[in-house]
Amino acid sequence: MKKLFIYTILFVMTAASFAQAQNQYRTFAQIFPNIDAETRAAVFSETGYVRSSQRSSGFVILGNNQNSRLDPSVVNIVLNSNPGYLVESIFIIPGRPGSVSLLNIYNALGNIRDLRGRLYDSATRGQPTPLFEEATRINSERNTNSIADPAPASAVPQTETVFIRLKDANFGNTFYRGEMALIQNGLRYTMSNFRSMSYMFVPVIREGKFIAQLYFEPINEGVLVYSIAAADISDFFAQRIHVDSAISKRLAVINSWAADGIKRN
Questions:
Q1: List of residues 6+ apart from 212 with CB closer than 8 A
Q2: Whole-angstrom Cα distance, residue 115 to residue 132?
Q3: What share of the chain is helix, strand, coil (3-state, %, to 5)?
Q4: Counting Cβ atoms within 10 Å, is residue 80 exposed (0-12), middle (13-18) or buried (19+)?
Q5: pLDDT 10s digits, 92-106
Q6: Sheet of 146-147: strands edge to edge?
Q7: Cβ–Cβ < 8 Å for 85, 230
Q8: What predicted TM-score, i.e. pTM, was given to this entire model?
Q9: Cα 110 to the chain's mean position, in Å?
């Protein structure tokens, strides 16, 4: 009888702890209320929800919906760059409540070298191709010498800025500023180019005209990964390349890098 009593107490305490852990996190439905069943199914699928839109026909952004409970800065930082093309992505890394912390996410984003060699489906080459042939952290905007990725941190800073060089399969060396900030219930990570991106020495995307915004939040169902990427490209090049596809592929590679790192951490 005494053992039964002890087991009962332990079970109640474990159940209470689990319930408390669940209550610490929002659910997907609380962040995106009134999402239709088809969209929700896409979000929780392996590929996630992805939608492209253009300024000329009007942007369609779930994160900017009046019912969304995302911090407004997640979307507004991108819209303030006045892009011509935009891609929104939402997916869930499934897991138990509390299995992934913001520190896990922060440390995953520190592994810049893991961006190297990630594949995308190249229509021109007809086969999967590494999007970024090289990926490294650099000192600053003026000093582009490579530096090592840091060791795992023991705490998440409130804000941080890093500088990155990626050798793009189409644009050659590209240079980004990565700005991290703790906001609301999660972590916001902004990547924007601080030098023009060129093709055959001709600028295609001017400085600051490509931006990828990622927001990570541990939720009751796992980890929410909300991302939105945008670019402004001249009409001359927009008529010659599939802009939506170019943005989508880069966002997908960045998302896969972040998701794989989070799963490992």
A1: 190, 191, 192, 227, 228, 229, 250, 251, 254
A2: 7
A3: 30, 35, 35
A4: exposed
A5: 999 999 899 999 999
A6: 49-54, 85-94, 222-231, 210-219, 186-193, 172-183, 159-168, 132-138, 146-147
A7: yes
A8: 0.89
A9: 13
